[in-house]
Amino acid sequence: MKTFVLSLLLALTCVHSSAVVFAAEPNREDYPKGEWVSLFNGKDLTGWTPKIRHCEVGENFGNTYRVEDGILKVRYDGGGYEKFDERFGHLFFKDTFSSYRLRIEYRFVDEQCPGGPGWATRNSGVMVHGQDPKTMTKDQDFPVSIEVQFLGGNGKDPRTTSNLCTPGTNVVMNGELKLQHCISSSSKTYHGEQWVVSETEVHNSEIIKHLLDGEVVLEYQKPQLDKRDENAKKLIKGDDLLITGGTISLQSESHPIDFRKVEIMVLEE
Q1: Domain residue spans in the chain?
Q2: In this structure, are residues 187 and 98 in contact, taking their beta carbons and an 8 Å threshold?
Q3: 62 alpha carbon, distance to own chain's centre
Q4: pLDDT, tens digit, for every residue of 119-130?
Q5: Residue 242 DSSP one-character state
Q6: CATH number of the domain at 2-266, please?
Q7: pTM for this one?
């Protein structure tokens, strides 16, 4: 039995020398290496495309994603959200990236949309190394990606943020292939409606770090497609499993959230 398990893990972690990247690289003149560039212009959703479950790519159901007062907002007070109905959404930036630092300022506000799952209360996140939204099915809930999960506290209990979730993917941590869906960080709890600055440092498929207040709260390596996942299976080509780059998207998971800044610094490969 031990021999079988070891063989399975080796099969999952062995990859072809040509690893998976979900989309083409952007024009690098727009992203000078080592300089912060804003992906959100503070005025509108230029450069961003929504993909909400049960909807076609580009349909901003119920005006879920909007810009008001210089803030990119996720809201559920538009038509159609009498109940959440598992309309998990993602707002995709137009370009893809491989090695970079991503800095996001966010805060949770107001009350959860009626019908939202209990686990999604004060829950959102940013997806990195994600698939192209055009390759998602209409009823697909999450893109195959690596999720930097944002969680807000309830005012009394500990609840870490900048955690890791893996829709259709796996990672390696401390030399071990991790097959569970979510892994908690070592962060403190952020209660209330305070702004939180989350940073993610991505080095191709080599290493990914989650940082809060300049401190690393989670670190892992070798993001890769999960052969067990039906959505991921459609993206596997040959023996390639490692993910070297992809899309960036902001979640809508039933709780209102504000994004004040979304900035990227492209790094040397």
Answers
A1: 2-266
A2: no
A3: 22
A4: 999 999 999 999
A5: B
A6: 2.60.120.560
A7: 0.90
